[in-house]
Write a structure and sequence with these properties.
With about 130 residues, the chain is of the alpha/beta class. The chain contains four helices and six strands. Strand 1, helix 1 and strand 2 form a beta-alpha-beta unit.
């Protein structure tokens, strides 16, 4: 099992839970057009759903894509304000093709799950 997790806290959790020799957790972001590094934007709520003092840990939702001003969250009105408090991290990026060529040499892939926060199709097609 190969997992890719660019958020440092989530990567550390997954790595601590992994089975040595059976799971590899890479601290990278997967991109359809990888560059050595990219800016990863991660939701970092301070007052969850605009309720002062109602703390919520980082959602874990992150993306190499920027915030879309035209996006309207159908769940609640204060989403746009919350999205303004994202944290940005510089993370190394690779292609899915690089991961397959590096870690899955001469093996059949029975199952592949990609969750690239809106870039899933592009990531798979670029491999």
């Amino acid at each position: 099992l190969i997992s890719v997790e660019p958020l440092p806290d989530k990567w550390a959790f997954l790595r601590a839970q992994s089975i040595p020799g059976r799971q590899l957790v890479l601290p990278l972001a997967v991109s359809s057009t990888p560059t050595p590094y990219a800016i990863l934007r991660s939701q970092n709520y301070s007052d969850f759903r605009d309720v002062p003092g109602r703390k919520f840990q980082e959602s874990g939702a992150s993306s190499l894509l920027g915030y879309a001003d035209h996006f309207t969250d159908h769940m609640w009105q204060g989403a746009r304000k919350q999205y303004q408090s994202m944290r940005e991290l510089v993370v190394p990026t690779v292609s899915l093709g690089w991961i397959l060529d590096t870690f899955v040499v001469n093996r059949a892939v029975d199952w592949l799950k990609v969750d690239a926060q809106g870039l899933d199709f592009e990531v798979v097609m670029a491999a």
